[in-house]
Write a structure and sequence with these properties.
This protein is of the alpha/beta class. Helix content is 38%, strand content 14%. The protein has a single domain, classed as Aldolase class I (TIM Barrel). The chain has an eight-stranded parallel barrel with strand order 1-3-4-5-6-7-8-9, surrounded by seven helices.
């Protein structure tokens, strides 16, 4: 922090710069823009259920429904979306082989979306929790442990399949060790050098993911099992910075902090320690809390949403994943 030399009151009056709306806008240090926003979507097979079980029922879109939705979103100025597949129960297995099926739900969706919206940036998750019978992000070995190295082999296949389907930004969210390095090496070997890696480098073992897992269809599979052997302990900050710096060294183009609102200090610390873009994910639990509080008239919905996202940007996020993105784009427009 630079030293502030002041003659004190009345020569310095901080309120002068707050005296009108236009003046406050003129000197605002943080400006939220539609370009900052990524809108997440859950996709489903035509025969699957549209709504998840949580109160706000994150909608699951069929591919055709998604195409209609994206037509609206693109007109609002949103340039990037993140897609998460809700896989039918019979396709979930111990080895997660559906994750690299070249005709799986996400691959089919990618091809159709890119045909209709070739300039849209589509971010595809790389993790096995939609595809495993256990609901975990990795393969469970004979000792009942998440096997890091076997999981990475599957993640590589999944990444190459997404790249082959046209994805330009893949987002490993699994938190396995070394996966960025090995995915990057395989993308280069297979001539996908222009595919970006957005690494969930600081993904914490948070208690705010439950509505997401409902929508993804993995919550029942996971049951009471925890992901604390691979996601970061929420009590740690230096570990998150270390993980991010390692992923950058291994070939990540963007790093991610997830969740966002409770981890503004982590966003800021990583922003100060790296030179590549930093993303942040305002997760489903954070979204639902704001929705609940506003529905019960405890807070004013629109200004609280804008405050929450502006604070994430102020902390240092260059792009923000949020389920509010479409609404916010409408407000900003």
């Amino acid at each position: 922090m630079k030293k502030f030399n002041s003659r004190g009151f009345p020569f310095h009056r901080g309120r002068r710069l707050r005296s009108s709306s236009n003046l406050r806008d003129l000197v605002a240090e943080t400006l939220l823009k539609t370009d900052d926003l990524v809108m997440p979507y859950f996709i489903r097979e035509d025969s699957d259920k549209m709504e998840s079980k949580n109160k706000f029922g994150f909608k699951r879109f069929s591919i055709n429904e998604l195409l209609k939705e994206l037509d609206e979103v693109v007109k609002l100025g949103i340039k990037s979306v993140a897609l998460f597949p809700k896989i039918e129960v019979e396709k979930k297995t111990d080895d997660a082989n559906e994750s690299f099926n070249e005709n799986n739900l996400i691959s089919r969706a990618l091809k159709k979306v890119l045909k209709e919206f070739p300039d849209l940036m589509i971010i595809c998750d790389v993790a096995l929790d939609p595809y495993t019978a256990s609901g975990h992000d990795g393969i469970i070995n004979s000792n009942g442990e998440i096997d890091n190295d076997i999981t990475v082999q599957i993640l590589v296949k999944m990444s190459l399949n997404l790249a082959s389907s046209g994805c330009k930004i893949i987002a490993p969210s699994d938190m396995m060790d070394g996966r960025i390095k090995i995915i990057r090496e395989n993308l280069e070997t297979n001539k996908f050098s222009n595919v970006n890696i957005l690494s969930y480098s600081s993904k914490f073992c948070s208690n705010f993911y439950s509505p997401f897992r409902d929508a993804l269809g993995s919550r029942e599979n996971l049951g009471d099992s925890k992901k604390d052997s691979y996601q970061i302990d929420y009590r740690n900050s230096r570990e998150a910075v270390k993980e991010s710096l390692e992923d950058i060294e291994e070939g990540a183009d963007i790093v991610m902090v997830k969740p966002a609102g409770y981890y503004l200090d982590i966003i800021n610390e990583i922003k100060k320690n790296c030179l590549i873009p930093v993303a942040a994910y305002q997760v489903s639990g954070e979204y639902v809390m704001i929705k609940n509080a506003s529905d019960d008239k405890f807070i004013d919905y629109r200004p609280c949403v804008l405050e929450s996202l502006s604070c994430i940007k102020r902390a240092g996020a260059d792009l923000i994943f949020s389920y509010f993105s479409k609404e916010v784009a409408q407000w900003l427009k």
